[in-house]
Amino acid sequence: AAMYLPPHFEQHDPAVLAALMQRHPLALLIVATPEGPSADLIPLEFHAGLGPQGTLRGHVARANPLWRHAGAAVLAVFQGPQAYISPNGYPSKREHGKVVPTWNYTMVQARGTLQAVDDAAWLRALVGRLTDRHTAPAPGLEGAEVMWGTLADLVAAARRGDEVVVGVGCG
To answer: What is the pLDDT of residues 120-152, one digit of tens each?
Structure first.
């Protein structure tokens, strides 16, 4: 079931929703498992052109049991700016005193089916994009190049069956 959302607060513009997911990529990825609900914070990237409503991509360690739930329905929650709104700010408080506090927030909920991706090239490209996007450049080091040796070792270990990392996607 969808969360309660008064119609006057609904946002249906895909560009606005995508912008919030891109500005605040750390999503709470929720899946109902046989053991109960699971919620993992995962940085996700949104691809508007993949799938009817877009596709989210991220990665987790193989030690994280999340990827074992491939095929399950998932809910990704992206949270943007939020703030408490005091009733003291309402002009109507001075008029009649009938006001209540509230909490304003921005959020996108995306639903899909969890997919596990076991492909070294896919994973390397994903981790490279995430690293380039979120790592500040350092003198003499260029984004994802900083960690390719380590990532190559991790991918090789995963290929040997050491089960280090796995990609996840939902769309």
So the answer is: 888 888 888 888 887 766 555 554 444 444 445
Q: What is the pLDDT of residues 60-106, one digit of tens each?
A: 888 888 888 988 989 999 998 888 888 877 777 777 777 777 888 88
Under a CB-based contact definition with an 8 Å cutoff, are residues 163 and 123 in contact?
no
Contact 164, 158 (CB under 8 A): yes
Phi, psi of 62 (to 5 degrees): -60, -25
- Give phi and psi for 163, each to the nearest 5: 50, 70
Q: Which two tokens stand for residue 12?
A: 């249906």
State how far the Cα of 21 lies from the Cα of 110, in Å rounded to an integer.
10
CB–CB of 41/88 below 8 Å?
no
What is the C-alpha separation between 114 and 72, in angstroms, rounded? 6
Q: Which residues on adjacent β-strands are paired with residue 74? A: 31, 112
